[in-house]
Fold each of these.
Amino acid sequence: MDSSKLLKTVYGIDIHFEDLVYQVKQSKQKEKKSVLKGISGTFKSGEMTAIMGPSGAGKSSLMNILTGLTKSGVSGTIEIGKARKLCAYIMQDDHFYPFFTVEETMLLAAALKISNKCVNLKEKRILIDHLLNTLKLNKAKQTRCSKLSGGQKKRLSIALELIDNPAVLFLDEPTTGLDSSSSFDTIQLLRTLANEGRTIVCTIHQPSTNIYNLFNLIYVLSSGQCTYQGTPQNTVMFLKTIGLECPAYHNPADFLLECVNGDFDDHTEALTECAKDTRWRYDQQLLQDEAEPPTDAQVAKFNESQTQGQAAQPKIQKVESAKELIKHTYPPPEWVRLWLLIGRCHLQFFRDWTLTYLKLGMHILSAVMIGLFFGDSGINATKQISNVGMIMIHCVYLWYTTIMPGILRYPMEIEIIKKETFNNWYKLRTYYVATLITSTPVHIIFSTVYITIGYLMTDQPVELDRFVKYLLTAVVVTICADGLGVFLGTILNPVNGTFVGAVSTCFMLMFSGFLILLNHIPNALRFIAALSPMRYALENMVISLYGNQRDKLVCPSTEFYCHFKNAITVLRQFGMEQGDFGYNIMMILGQITLFKILAYFTLKHKLKSV
Ligand SMILES: Nc1ncnc2c1ncn2[C@@H]1O[C@H](COP(=O)(O)OP(=O)(O)OP(=O)(O)O)[C@@H](O)[C@H]1O
């Protein structure tokens, strides 16, 4: 299959909805609010439809229902059926990974959406070049996404979704934030895509006359009711039938919106009644005062006569069966997507210097500073309380520097994940596993660097098994902090997340067994300490260093008596002589598993609600 064929075969999908009602719960009120009040309509393939209406009329709600993003509270019938897989939704804001170029973003999208078995890399490159040329993005091919202009971002969003040749494109306010020339270019491009046989549906605010006339169908909503469904050219005549005369040289789109807004009295009822007449959808020449709307054959004949002499339009194929549909979508297996996402996460990690070099530099600097402060605390029997304090600092440092980025990770990426999972680039669980696979080695490397420097600089026992146990505990507590951070990031916004993250760290620190000894905590409250991963981590790090019959520590000759000369005294002092390394590790691993599973489900829930 060559790439040009991939783009040329367009499956025509008509969207028909009947008696659509959407009700939402209102806080404090028992009665539900009807956002959409039994609207009906048909958006045909080969046509570009604009959904218009005043703010709060229900445009986005209708779009979300048609795309399948909103499911609860909806009644009525929608006929898109299995063809939902051939739909793409381009949301209002354009979100991309900032460190990738346009070409890289396109290549990755192509790899995620189309199996190499159907279209090989060379053909994908040809396809991408073709799309970038069509969307006038070829000059920005090597530009990083963060550096694109608003119009270029919108065109890139469209190009990304065109890769697998969707039959239906939904766009939420594609011209918002663009200047008039970019807006016109974007809508003209969409019209070209519609002419090729696709169904294009977009919401739009106050289009200029030029843009308005590019649409095939205008679908106007007002307070959840349809107040016009017809061609742009019929608007003036439609309004005239209910006595609303559009002034000369006035933009019909503006006048239509003024009328439905109630600027010339409330005509909603009359407009709703008149909008039920589907004949406004057709050219007046075709109707010729017929009482019935024309048949499809009549429309096709008329369109043919209108386009005579122009380039032949591609033939639109109808989707007949689910089998045929699967053939048309060419998705690669999910494990291939997993590899691709792991690759993307890695690249992103290395390109963002704040994630790599800055963090690594800070870890090294902090470890050296702590090493200089604590000196020989690992061996000097007079400094053992300070040494356990240093272990506490290691725990808190690793915890805090991991939980905060964890809290902020998903809020920053949520819009990208939402767009990509909704448009069938990959499944959420694939993405989630890819982030787990890529983030874990990073935590291991960073905590190893930090702990090794701190360990060696403070004269801790040079015994491999003690070091390995100490390091292992530091690594698992770091991964646990990441798990909790990600979980908090999926249930709270960044402001509340960082607050809760900081407060929870304080509590975990309080119950870690250093600031207040475990056997000093009232029995009834000890279960709180049992919830703190830092309590298990601290105990494990202390028993790694002082347990297992460690040799005596060095008591300086200047000292008359060293209370902590025997390592077991340190364990007794902190009530940790009964500590079980394996049990503590299992408790932290249990919490990691819990947080990671919870985070997946809360992320899934969040994607549905944003
Ligand atoms: N889940 C919801 N819960 C409560 N109210 C909702 C919900 N979804 C939509 N609404 C309400 O329904 C109305 C229509 O919202 P919608 O976002 O569809 O309007 P819109 O026409 O897209 O507006 P705009 O042009 O300003 O984006 C608004 O009053 C909104 O507050």
Amino acid sequence: MEDCEPPLFAFGIIADVQYADIDDGLNFKQTRKRYYRNSLKLLQKAIDSWNVENVKPNFILQLGDIVDGFNKKYDASQRALDTVLREFNHSPAVHHVWGNHEFYNFTRGALLSSVLNSKSNQQRSSDNDDFYAYHFSPAPNFRFVVLDAYDLSIIGREESSDKYQQSLKLLKDHNSNEDLNHPPVFSGLEQRFVKFNGGFSQDQLQWLDHVLSKADEMQEKVTVASHLPVHPLSTDPICLAWNYSEVLSLLQAHRSVICFIAGHDHDGGYHRDDSGIHHLTLEGVIETPPQSNAFGTVYVYEERMVLKGNGRMADRVLPYPRSLAEQCSI
Ligand SMILES: Nc1ncnc2c1ncn2[C@@H]1O[C@H](COP(=O)(O)OP(=O)(O)O)[C@@H](O)[C@H]1O
């Protein structure tokens, strides 16, 4: 893991903080404890740690579900959001990804006019209006793309919208349960057709294709971030994006793509696909015991990235697909 050369830059990663000022509880299946108040403390510790690192992260990727849906029930959504965002006042710049819990608390319109809209800080913010996706380049030859995994969804879309109707039809075609959060089957890939997941519209896939084609041309290295994972071997399939295979094919068709980072599955996961793309699903802070943590710093080098994980998050070396270092074995 030790590298003699200094990294080109570094960035922080953290997922599923799901803060709420309520007592500890359990997930729906009652298999995992959730530490709603303590998640804020773990976020504070992560930020403190990033702030004292030798190579301070240029930015933080926050993979979504920053506040828990329970806040809505207690009319505490804005208070909880203000509380977590206050912590980020002391951190490097943050790129916020949107997850299902953002939509349990806020409408899409409210999110667009909130601090969670990191896209509004980007120059190219106006090239797509109907989904929350954007890209940025923090250093020459490196690009990051933030995707909207709830572009097709029945949470966060107005019932009157085409996207809502299209999403409802897709869900109902695969899930005949009255409660659409209840999976249609108990194992396998079809489990993903639940209301708490979503997908990517054709417009967003076209936009992504265009961004990645340009990155290929420029010989950039691209990391893509989304709340929902897109590789079945990087997650419990119940957490996959509905049209994960379309995104996966697109990523694999572009040589610029090196890494896909997601949240949502609090157990985390990792898989390197046949094209050499690393699929990292981050362990969720909300299900992390108080004495541990779940965040990381990714150090970016010419030929690889190195993830230094904390607590439940493992260290990993992530060589670039087709890189010289990989051919020579790292
Ligand atoms: N098997 C299930 N049947 C019915 N509802 C479920 C099921 N699993 C989850 N849910 C509901 O779906 C929503 C999201 O589930 P949850 O486990 O809280 O997701 P997250 O990991 O995003 O917090 C919650 O409202 C939860 O009650």
Amino acid sequence: MASSIAPTTLTIAPPDDWHLHLRDGEALEHVVAATALNFRRAIVMPNLKPPVTTTEQALAYRGRILAAVDKACMSGRYSEADCAQMRQFQPLMVLYLTGATPADEIDRAMVSGAVHAVKLYPAGATTNSDAGVSDLLGQCSAVLARMQALGMPLLVHGEVTEAHVDVFDREAAFIESVMKPLRSRFPSLRVVFEHITTRQAAEYVTDHATRDAQGRLLLAATITPQHLLYNRNALFRGGLQPHWYCLPILKREEHRLALIKAATSGLPQFFLGTDSAPHARHLKEASCGCAGCYSAPYALGLYAEAFESVGALQTTDAFEAFTSRNGPAFYRLPVNPGRFELRRVPETVPERLPFVTDSGIVPLRAGETLTWSVTARE
Ligand SMILES: NC(=O)N[C@@H](CC(=O)O)C(=O)O
């Protein structure tokens, strides 16, 4: 229950985004500034075309991201203060796991210092997942053993892909048929259950977040703003709503409530991952629309709103743990120095933002007014 004394200012350590799609080329140039401004670091997903499967490709991609930040700063569209923020942005790179990834690729990734994780896309589960894995323990045991030995995290898109499993049940089915066997075979593997969407996933991560001999967490989960704010009715409100379509798909209200409980719990295994996934407007508003919500520019306000909806902003502790503290602890990185301030200053999300084609891109909550906005970044 929200108390009558509603806070007006939130001061937090600078946040990170632990699950982000930045794309490449011109698309990258359009979206990178929003993240560089609002987050100090981001785990950058490797589902490009072709996917980022080697350390060499990841390093080259990292260079293109930093060059795109630089180009945005040189464009004259951002103030000097904003550019000073943007130039602090660090992309944390991820390799795309395939059935052919060799174990020594993990050695190269560790040595690089720039690759922070390996991503499992079950083949066919989501955007650009065709090169993903069809039989995890059958195809990838050697590479998983090396990751476990070296402490390289596995980031998991947790959905089964069998046609007979209902799309709304695919995450819960994954826990039983993949996650549990994986963690029982590799009990010391560091795992992030990405963009969780169900009560079953929230409970699994709450109850089974084991720790290593040094007391460090071996299991965590990211949660998106859309899964905290919406249930599956949002997909059908007055007609088909393609901009609310992402994978894993929005679920029933009971699941949203379980995610809110997990995110606001302060438990260290839950942290911010927007899964901001840009697709041009005409590719979403199409007869076969792409999956993904574009949330990066307004993500912090959206999360604040989700926390406030259950009275979880009375102190900033749980909010800051989720946005800025739990992620670095899991990834064994320092909390960002400095501070961000959010205020109760209304901000209207534009109907459209510029993107690679004239159709533009539609951000999550386009045309609506948010309660919270970022008012200072230091
Ligand atoms: N979330 C999505 O719906 N889409 C993501 C892929 C993913 O993370 O599943 C994308 O790359 O577009």
Amino acid sequence: MEPNTLEIARGEVSAAGNTVLEVRDLKTYYRTRLKEKVFAVDGVSFTLEEGKTLGIAGESGCGKSTLSISLMGFYFPPLHYDSGSIIIGDTDIMKLSKEQLRKQILGRKIAYIPQAAMNALNPTMKIIHFIEDIMKEHRPELDKRQVRELATERFETLNLSPKVLDSFPNELSGGMKQRTVIAISTILNPTVLIADEPTSALDVTSQKAVIKLLKDLLAKQFIKSMIFITHELPLLYHVADEIMVMYAGEIVERGTSQQIVFDPLHPYTKRLMGSIIVPEHGMKAQKLAAIPGAPPNLKHKIVGCRFADRCLYTTDACRQGKIENRTSGNRVYRCHVDPGTLKEWYANEEA
Ligand SMILES: Nc1ncnc2c1ncn2[C@@H]1O[C@H](COP(=O)(O)OP(=O)(O)OP(=O)(O)O)[C@@H](O)[C@H]1O
């Protein structure tokens, strides 16, 4: 079904397809020791379609990790939920109790691989014991032999040696540990997998193996969709079907990976991606560009565009009221300037 214009304008729908996750106007904040609220996720809305990988890009501190943690619906101080919905299937998980979340959602519907996940494994437990613990909670009808059979089959299908099951974490290389964490985290076939910098701190060969594993999980339908966060632009471009760009707690643009990298609309995306005339092979070493200045302090109420202090094209209009989303074809971006004018400005920069 085609999304209607209003839905797109709210940034709630990006593409036709089977929606597996819908986030509506989500707001979450850190409470500081001085009792101030830092809204690191401030009115985020988006959908994720079955079979798709959605990348999240943005400078350090723009809220990517907070958004991904927030999507689990499970909050530990200093992070708090303020408002909004996280809908998986027919369930708004924010309406569930912590117990319901733990039993019905975490690991089953949504799984999260945090930064440096591989270092979080308890070194005194063999890999099979992590899987047994998960199954005890979620598939109590299975005995130990059945759990081992299931784990062996899963590891073999993912081209991981079943011998790993009888290893301790510190007997595995960094890359193998990371792949093992991913295999364990997805053993219940979650609808959505969130991978936050899953390849950072790995050598190039291990990075490739992790990416292949993630793609295999999708292709073999052990997961239905993925949210992928990385600072590595070429990696994001190659892994993600679509990219959302975050700035100061808001989504400022969403489009296909091709559009975001090579034809950005929002001035923040434009700066973040550097020059749009980048031949693909030249992207290999490219990271997200450093932009002069710093994002606004989220402790304070911000009026107008959050990027205004760093944008090359700021006018008085940018500093007034709330900046609403605009649409251009399948794309949504949060800037009051029309696409034609933006493209003209960017063309002049390159002239
Ligand atoms: N414990 C905390 N207390 C207060 N503010 C915090 C806390 N943790 C993060 N923040 C703030 O929340 C905002 C978003 O941080 P977050 O780590 O989500 O960004 P990020 O885009 O994931 O960065 P990175 O790419 O470095 O992981 C930042 O302004 C950060 O300073």
